[in-house]
Write a structure and sequence with these properties.
The chain is mainly alpha-helical. 74% of the residues lie in helices and 7% in strands. α4 packs antiparallel against α5.
Length: 141
């Protein structure tokens, strides 16, 4: 069922959303300071290509031994990104509402809501399959 939902999502818009995120990620990677944002956009593209069966986790939860310098840098970059994140979040609200009106659109609304949480704080977020997330949690315990 998850595979079928991902194929339908990919054909009816996921390809465009993922490709746009990849293109913007490549643009951000052209500058040194933009590389972390570009990497976050690559994670976002991974979510947009096939969102069903994926979870968004903070990198700190997956890797608790992350350095304080990296955490601080991620915090600063998330602050720099915040105006863009707010705009993307506000643009996604009508899409969520309009999608949730119909029964068939509810899965789309859930995906857009999940993605809108990601765009608010993309630095330090990772997109994992549910199986990868469970394996990471077991490895850390």
């Amino acid at each position: 069922m998850r595979t079928l939902a991902n194929v339908i999502w990919f054909v009816f818009g996921g390809i465009w959303l993922g490709t746009a995120a990849m293109a913007f990620g490549l643009l951000f990677c052209l500058t040194i300071i933009g590389i972390p944002i570009g990497r976050a956009l690559f994670q976002y593209a991974r979510l947009m290509y096939a969102p069903f069966g994926k979870v968004i986790v903070r990198e700190v939860d997956v890797n608790p031994n992350m350095s304080k310098i990296r955490r601080s840098g991620g915090f600063v970059l998330n602050i720099i990104w915040l105006p863009f994140g707010i705009i993307l979040f506000l643009l996604s609200i009508p899409a969520i509402i309009l999608s949730a009106i119909t029964i068939i659109g509810i899965p789309h609304a859930v995906v857009v809501a999940k993605a809108s949480v990601f765009v608010m704080r993309p630095i330090g977020a990772k997109v994992l399959t549910k199986e990868e997330h469970i394996a990471a949690m077991v490895r850390n315990n």
